[in-house]
Amino acid sequence: MKQTISLLARLIDTLAPRSCTVCGGRLTVTEEVMCACCNHSLPRTGYAKSGYDNRLVRLFWGRIPIEKGAAFFFYKAHSDTSRLIYQLKYGGHPELGEGLGRIVAAEFAHDGFFEGITAVVPVPLARQRERERGYNQSVEIARGISAETGLPVLDKVLERISFHGSQTQKGRWERNENVEKAFRLLDASALNNQHILLVDDVITSGATLVAAAKEVLKGENVKVSVLSLGFANNE
Predict the structure, then answer these.
(1) Are 204 and 176 in contact (CB under 8 A)?
(2) By the number of CB atoms within 10 A of the CB, which of 23, 54, 124, 204 ranks highest?
(3) Domain Phosphoribosyltransferase: where (predicted)?
């Protein structure tokens, strides 16, 4: 059976070859999202090994009670690796989110990052933005994490009620004001006694996740951790 699947995969790959999202080179049958070379050179943060105390987690200290947090790689706009985020968000490739979610989850699981976490909540998009894009990239990432870890995805407990443009060109204080009351909790009971992992694509100032976490924490006895693909390293 495995041999049949392997032969079928090779046939499909021959007829419709896939390319590396980072360098554009052809992927082998066993490679997903990016080639082995680009995967090896990805600027990983290593934060999953010290999930309770790292530069990303410190962004949230004094703002929300956070358990732990990690990002997959350091994000820099217009770099080769930034194509992972650009293609996921703007290139119409939701499958990249699930693929990256699987990769991240497999690596982070080795460090015990998911221990104690009971459910995954993707950061919601505004309805207009999701209609334009056709999907929510954070939901796709969460699905990949769920497929690898078995954790349930709770994508109906939180909604985004306002959107005032991209965060990209805004300063830290503008980001805070832009998303301060952007989310609304829909189902607090689904979060009661849970350790929630909030998932987003990129963390810069942390403002979006702070606003989302404040709503999630309205549930009873809720703990919050965070995970993102990219961390915009400004130092």
Answers:
(1) no
(2) 124
(3) 117-223
Average predicted confidence (pLDDT) for the chain: 89
Of 138, 129, 141, the closest CA to residue 212 belongs to 138
* DSSP character at residue 16: S
- Helix or strand or coil: residue 79? coil
Distance, CA of 121 to CA of 218 (rounded, Å): 14
β 223-232/69-75 pair status: parallel
- Answer yes or no: are the C-beta atoms of 50 and 195 closer than 8 Å: no
**How many angstroms separate the CA atoms of 159 and 127, rounded?**
9
* Helical axes 83-90 vs 137-149, angle rounded to 10°: 110
Q: Look-up: residue for tokens 């965060």?
A: 167
Q: What confidence tens digit (pLDDT) does each residue in 157-208 have?
A: 999 997 555 544 544 544 445 677 899 999 999 999 999 999 999 999 999 9
pLDDT single digits (tens) 122-154 = 999 988 899 999 999 999 999 999 999 999 999
Q: How many CB atoms lie within 10 A of CB 88?
A: 27
What's the chain's length in residues? 235
